[in-house]
């Protein structure tokens, strides 16, 4: 019990205190630990966590297939995709090239093969072959997934009198190499699937927005009005809506508010009619400019909402998150929070 409980708590408390005080003391060793050593330890632990998470994912998906749980067919694709990505990233280089060091004496047949590989006409291929020198071989602008595929093309070129060899991309950089097997999988499988997932999320966001914007109280109404102003102010049509039209709407909402609070039809009528007449007279006197008064022009109004109330709310949320992180960190350092040891 001592090794499984007390030792981990002591290690977490010591490292937590050392990291915390590293931000307050100008000590070279402590600063080096906080900025360098602790970060490297975190990366190492995160790497093991990712590895364990991947194994746990495979375990859960395999159990789902074996027990034929609901939706087990999708688990087959999950395991297959994991195996394919692991193979393309760690076991298969997937990036081989063909370098032509000499086109030979008769370049006609060589140009035919090059044109076929590059999907070009023979004249363009002959121009490319003519640029080859002893110090500057020509690399075919095509990446082959397997070494056998590259060697097959190189052998064909050598039979036609050229001097061609195969080269492989180095391990590690083959992942980012455009046209490699892993890069092909990322661009044509993972990226479309990610785009599909985000496209589906748009419908969930729309549904959540509908539920959030339903007028139930003053706060929901304020959220709805702010959302409409933000959406209209950020699209081209928002700059076409006159400030005076917004003022008319404000007068109508003011009438609704007066009727709600006072429950008096006369007061409501005076407010609405008087407000509409006042807006009309002032607008006629000013010549009905689209962007005047500026505070009711939608692009300017949405900027004010975005950079003032929105920023204030976001900062309040970030302050709350910071206080929550601080409180949780103190609980870990003092040994109050023990979830990391299974308690």
How would you sum up this structure, described in words?
The chain folds into four domains: 2-90, no CATH class; 96-168, 2-Layer Sandwich (Ribosomal Protein L30, Chain: A); 213-307, no CATH class; 310-341. It is built from twelve helices and three strands, in the order αααβααβαβαααααα. The chain has helices at residues 2-21, 28-66, 72-91, 107-118, 122-130, 147-159, 181-212, 218-233, 243-262, 265-286, 298-307, 309-333; strands spanning 96-102, 138-139, 163-168. A three-stranded antiparallel beta sheet has the order 2-1-3. The protein is extended and about 100 Å long. The model has no long low-confidence stretch (mean pLDDT 86).
Write the layout of secondary structure elements.
Layout: H1 2-21, H2 28-66, H3 72-91, E1 96-102, H4 107-118, H5 122-130, E2 138-139, H6 147-159, E3 163-168, H7 181-212, H8 218-233, H9 243-262, H10 265-286, H11 298-307, H12 309-333
Antiparallel strand pairs: 1-2, 1-3
Helix pairs in contact: 2-3, 4-5, 8-11, 9-10, 11-12
The figure for the number of domains is 4
Q: How are the strands of the largest sheet arranged?
A: 2-1-3
Percent of residues in beta strands? under 5%
Low-confidence stretches: none
Rg, Å, rounded: 34 Å
Describe the sheet with the most strands: 3 strands, antiparallel
Q: Count the strands?
A: 3
Backbone structural class: mainly alpha
Mean pLDDT: 86
**What is the helix/strand order?**
HHHEHHEHEHHHHHH
Basic shape? extended
């Amino acid at each position: 019990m001592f090794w499984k409980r007390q030792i981990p708590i002591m290690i977490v408390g010591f490292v937590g205190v050392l990291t915390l005080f590293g931000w307050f003391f100008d000590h070279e060793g402590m600063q080096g630990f906080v900025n360098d050593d602790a970060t490297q330890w975190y990366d190492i632990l995160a790497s093991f966590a990712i590895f364990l998470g991947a194994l746990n994912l495979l375990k859960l998906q395999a159990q789902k297939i074996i027990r034929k749980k609901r939706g087990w067919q999708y688990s087959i694709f999950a395991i297959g995709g994991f195996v394919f990505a692991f193979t393309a990233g760690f076991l298969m280089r997937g990036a081989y090239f063909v370098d032509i060091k000499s086109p030979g004496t008769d370049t006609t047949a060589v140009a035919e093969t090059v044109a076929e590989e590059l999907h070009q006409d023979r004249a363009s291929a002959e121009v490319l072959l003519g640029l080859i020198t002893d110090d500057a071989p020509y690399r075919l602008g095509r990446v082959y997934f397997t070494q056998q595929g590259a060697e097959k093309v190189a052998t064909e070129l050598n039979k036609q009198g050229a001097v061609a060899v195969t080269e492989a991309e180095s391990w590690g950089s083959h992942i980012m190499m455009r046209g490699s097997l892993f890069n092909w999988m990322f661009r044509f499988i993972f990226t479309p699937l990610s785009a599909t997932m985000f496209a589906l999320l748009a419908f969930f966001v729309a549904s959540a927005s509908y539920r959030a914007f339903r007028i139930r109280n003053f706060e929901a109404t304020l959220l709805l009005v702010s959302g409409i102003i933000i959406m209209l102010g950020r699209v081209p049509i928002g700059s076409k809506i006159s400030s005076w039209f917004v003022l008319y709407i404000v007068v109508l909402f003011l009438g609704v508010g007066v009727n709600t609070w006072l429950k008096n039809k006369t007061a409501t009528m005076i407010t609405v009619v008087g407000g509409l007449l006042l807006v009309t007279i002032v607008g006629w006197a000013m010549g009905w400019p689209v962007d005047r008064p500026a505070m009711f022009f939608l692009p300017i109004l949405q900027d004010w909402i975005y950079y003032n109330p929105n920023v204030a709310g976001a900062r309040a949320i970030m302050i709350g998150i910071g206080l929550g992180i601080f409180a949780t960190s103190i609980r870990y350092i003092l040994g109050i929070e023990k979830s990391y040891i299974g308690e």
